[in-house]
Amino acid sequence: MEWTTKQRYTRIEEVTPQELQALENQVNESPWRQTFHIQPVTGLLNDPNGFSFYNGEYHLFYQWFPLGPVHGIKYWYHTKSKNLTSWENVGIAIRPNDEIDSHGAYSGSAIEYNNELYLMYTGNTRDENWVRHPYQNMAVMDADGAITKWANPVINHVPSGYTDHFRDPKVWKEQDTFYAVIGAQRTDETGCIVLYSSPNMKDWTFEGEVNTNMETFGYMWECPDYFTINGQGILVFSPQGLAPDGDKYHNIYQSGYCLGNLDVKTKTMTHSEFIELDRGFDFYAPQSMEAPDGRRIMVGWMGLPEVDYPTDKHGWAHCLTLPREISIEKGKLMQRPVRELELKRGTKVEAEDVLKNESKSFDGFYGSSFELIAEFINADADSFGIEFRVSEQEKTVLLYDAAQKKVVLDRSNSGAPVGTAFGTSRQCILDATKLKFHLFVDTSSVEIFVNDGEEVFTSRIFPDKESIGIRFFAHSGQASCKAVKWTIGG
Ligand code: FRU
Asked: For the chain, what are the domain ranges?
């Protein structure tokens, strides 16, 4: 169904409770509803926003268009959790009902200040000629969870040299100063990041552009994030407009990071190359926060813009990824599922075998929603790995190609097709003879952490609900395999 502009800009407040209930009923019939991921009740979810810990709880907001699976007028929806694992739907946090956000409350971040949680976000507006004007706005949440929007933007214009693609403030604090990075596009249509500072979250000064050595690297950088881990600076952003390059950049848009310290005085960053955070099909616009115990935790949008998904016809689209812990080990960025996810573990099965040019299942190894750890040691197999969500017609394949030293995820037979114009397999180099695959499989997704977080593959898959087989294989030779699987409790 084509959505008219009028439909995309219809607000949730304009529809009746009966209409909303009908939408929700339609969504609940979808065979691909997730069981342990944050997903919208109806409509479309995109970027994680305002990820923070405040008043004893984690808060995670997301971009939301309530009325259908399209990028219509965006709200902030609020979820919260005590343990990063069981999330409670709180409700709408920011409604785009004011002149300064009349065409969408776009992405932003949160920080605690004076015992309240400050939510800094982009208010998207359009003038009578449909030209976009972004403002950077503030909303403040008190300890009772009441959110008050400020009447005036805190940044009310785009500095000269940049277009109206100017959004997604991410705030942090150094000593007594707040800093915000904002994703921007120069007037020559190249992407970059700019820096602002503030003593009080209210008065913001434009410091200038962050100087990197990526002068021409895509046409827009969305959702920047800057943080340090043990003194190592990390700049994360989502550039648009990169062309595929070998195994890299095959999704419509990318998300990745550079290691390097941002000197806020000189706005200069000496940094490593840009590395994709995730090697899968569906990962974009991630945001991170620091947990009370100092861990750096990141969540991404498990989806991409401008791609149709099979759930569209059921009135909803997308979910968030599981929270992952980011660390730097021996100079390399590692990503692991947060340990709190162990709280979800249910019934456990284990198996161990030497696979000799064969593909086999083990007792109790099946399911549509589970956690699985499989450790392989290769002897002389050409390739080995796991097939999951298997039926006669369908399977999703994760393998290690020993000759090419590549991890490969193949969703060409995963079920209902998605984004096939961008290819149906993803791969990356990883030089190892021991491979540990840690999978979280939900009704319509998989997150794969390889060798304790050296690489991650995050993808939506849309199998039939009867496709629940799990098989382990080694081709043209032998590999040993040790596997453990848990059911995941709701
Ligand atoms: C990234 C993004 C952001 C913007 C938001 C709008 O997916 O385009 O740049 O703030 O989504 O929903």
From this structure: 5-337, 343-488
Position 406 confidence tier, pLDDT thresholds 50, 70, 90: very high
pLDDT tens digit string along 246-267?
999 999 999 999 999 999 999 9
Which residues have any ligand 1 atom within 6 Å of their CB? 46-47, 63, 74, 106-107, 122, 167-168, 222-223, 284-285, 305
What is the distance in A from the centroid of ligand 1 to the CA of 285?
Answer: 8
Percent of the chain at pLDDT above 90? Answer: 99
Q: What is the 384 CA–ligand 1 centroid distance (Å)? A: 39
User: Which residues form the catalytic set?
Assistant: 47
Sign of the alpha-carbon torsion through 390, 396, 399, 404 = positive
Return the pLDDT at 15: 97
Q: Which amino acid is at 158?
A: V
Domains 5-337 and 343-488 share a fold: no
Q: What angle do CA 79, 84, 86 make, to 5 degrees?
A: 65
Tens digit of pLDDT for each residue in 219-247?
A: 999 999 999 999 999 999 999 999 999 99
What is the layout of strands, in order, in the sheet containing 132-141?
105-113, 116-126, 132-141, 147-149
Q: How large is the ipTM?
A: 0.98
Distance CA 457, CA 129 (A): 42
Q: Is the pLDDT of residue 165 over 90?
A: yes
Match domain 5-337 to its CATH number in 2.115.10.20, 2.60.120.10, 3.40.50.300, 2.40.10.120.
Answer: 2.115.10.20
Class of the CATH-defined domain 343-488: mainly beta
Handedness of CA 45, 86, 327, 430 (dihedral sign): negative
C-alpha to C-alpha distance for 462 and 446, rounded to whole angstroms = 10
